[in-house]
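Researcher: Structure prediction, please.
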Amino acid sequence: MAVAPLICNTIPFSGPVKKEYEQSFSVAVSESTTVGREVSLTAEASLTVKGVGGKIGGTVKWSNSTTNSMSVTKSGSDKTSFEVQEGKFRKLDTRLCAGVGG
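Model: Predicted structure follows.
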């Protein structure tokens, strides 16, 4: 089984520091289904009377299709503030796993 690489880091801060972070996401899933049908009818008739004859024929085609589509979107956001008062110390731990922040 493969394991995604994990990178950890600690960033120390001394005050005064005030940072605000906002992260957001949006995921959309779409699906489309098409159903179709085609009907074809071919008819041919011939008649011969005393050596004289004829032939007649024809084709009728009918087709129909229906498409149903659906799309679902999910989105959200989160805002975080990071503050260190004057003369205080704080650390910020970060984790990255396969390129995704944590």
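Model: The first strand starts at residue 6 and ends at 14.
Researcher: Thanks, that helps.
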